[in-house]
Design a protein that fits this description.
This protein is α/β, with parallel strands linked by helices. The chain folds into 2 domains: 212 residues, P-loop containing nucleotide triphosphate hydrolases (Rossmann fold); 70 residues. 38% of the residues lie in helices and 22% in strands. It has 12 helices and 11 strands. It has a 6-stranded mixed sheet with strand order 7-8-9-3-10-11, with helices on both faces. Strands 1, 2, 4, 5 and 6 form a 5-stranded antiparallel sheet that branches.
Length: 308
Amino acid sequence: MTMQQPSNQAPLLDVENLRVTLRTAEGPFDAVRGVSFRLGRERLGIVGESGSGKSMTARAILGLLPHGGCLRADRMQLGDTDLCDLGDRAWTRIRGKRISMVLQDPRHALNPVKTIGRQIDETLCRHLGLSRRDARARTLTLLDAVHIRDPERVYRAFPHEVSGGMGQRAMIALMVAAEPEVLIADEPTSALDLAVQNQVLNVLDEQVVGRGMGLIFISHDLDLVSRFCDRVLVMYGGEVVEELPADRLSDATHPYTRGLIDCAPRLGQGRQRFKTLDRAAISLALRHEPADLPVAGHLRGVAEGLHP
């Protein structure tokens, strides 16, 4: 089902010229370079290599930059709220309530010393002001809505006591509990087998379509994004190099997007020589030298920035 927002409606999220600079051991590194997009009530895919700036863009929108990170933007608007200059207290009211993020691995994203039910209860009590009793009833309903067969058992379980697919569905329940306007899903299915992946995608689709949210879906899987999303942004070196409808991803013209498509193996074609990206052609298409992708040295510097 297509959810694209009519052009006469204001976007849920409006980002213009977003830039993120990180402090590294080798000096400042531009992780995001002038990213602009609008998100309506739709599924927006963001694809690109590791280090292309996908997750950093998402974290910037959530105000979750690493220590020493600097954010600048001409506009970063969530509805009528300017996200550029929010303080910690204002961010606490917005995260989870108006914008949420589903991370890749629920074992690391969920609190390991609290039961799944208690974590969802706390979100409902904090953002919706529900009593403990009402929150518990709402949590069980949410767990059932994401196709967990035994909500009572999962409500009492700790994150390590459930499978990866069930943990990811519980994470989705947690993140949609307060009915946010925007949901960000960062590689939510990459650690799951194909059958469980499809189940999680169906749950995401039901929640986003049923609640009328905007979804930012970050992934390396171009085929998955072309089937699941409405639009696609392709990122390279911290910037958006191409934007097109998801069902026309195979018609992409930018050398980088074509390179990503051509790098994927094809079933039924026998032995193949894998292609590699032609970065010289990509630089020529960009008409400038792109930011280096964060290889080991840059990643090491970012880690040092996180832990000074």
